[in-house]
Specification:
alpha/beta; DNA polymerase, domain 1; 42% helix; globular
Amino acid sequence: MTRKRGGKIKAVLFDLDGTLIDSVPDLTWALNTMLRHFGLRMCNEDEVRGWIGDGAGKLVRRALTAQAQEDTICFDRALSLFMEAYGTVLSQKTTPYTGIDKVLTVCQQKGIRTALVTNKPERFIKPILRRFGWEDSFALVLGGDTLTTKKPDPAPLLYALKYLAVAPEDALMVGDSCNDILSAKRAGIKSIGVMWGYGASAFTDGCEASHYVKTPIELAERLHG
């Protein structure tokens, strides 16, 4: 895949949840553990898919808001319970999307530098990467709390490019949500929206990616050139 400016792609920044992995089953279990503590209704996986994308805090807040409990339940306690519960599972039922290993292999073969830029709390990321054998797949891993800002702010993407020593015009952001696309636009980076993730329905006005792919294999083919 080439660009009008800067030639071949030198770096790809990947989102995690909804892009590389389907983490909804484990996130749902952790949310329900928290909700059960407060005697609230359990949520289902379809609901959780619509809540993911802005980090753990927003995920918990949306779960409480869905039951009109955001002002009656102590948010800090709810977040703490969720984090504790999620930390005990992480990847028990989480799975990589079929073909993602091929995507990462292509990047390695083509000499494309890679970074993981996610809004997931940093403490949860490395155990998941180890679980799938990806601990050496990324030159840099940034969680939602690694820096003082997170997507859709462009700062994490710009930080990653500086670390990788790659110019914005020579990079791509790959993700499934508006946060990924907007942060890429603000950083001057082209983007690929993946259609298998949680936020694909939001790729509308103001949130259009530079390109779209329907499957990880199609993404691997694009990156291979």
